[in-house]
Amino acid sequence: MLELRPNCECCDRDLPPDSGEAMICTFECTFCRDCVDTVLHNVCPNCGGGFAPRPIRPAAALLRHPASTTRVLKAEGCGPASAA
∠ CA(24), CA(17), CA(78), 5° rounding? Predict the structure, then answer.
């Protein structure tokens, strides 16, 4: 089950469960579309993988499987991705 993390790890922008701006890698690292396109150039700074749009969980399913409330933020900042 995807965690549906609540924010961009780069700029800390809110990414609610129904956001079409949330992008994830295969490890569920979560970033906003703006950071993926302009800062990270579609390469995850944590694992080196690419990104895909995060699926939107239907509202009824959120009742049984709520989104995460734990915010993740890159402490060292979020510069262009380097080889992982």
Answer: 40
> Are the beta carbons of 30 and 5 closer than 8 angstroms?
yes
User: Distance between CA atoms of 63 and 61, rounded to whole angstroms?
Assistant: 5
Find tokens 């800390």 and name the residue.
12
Percentage of the chain modeled with pLDDT above 70: 94
Domains and CATH numbers, the chain: 1-63 (3.30.40)
Please, which pLDDT band fits residue 81 given cuts at 50, 70 and 90? low
3-state secondary structure (DSSP) of residue 23: strand
Return the sign of the alpha-carbon dihedral for residues 68, 70, 71, 75: negative
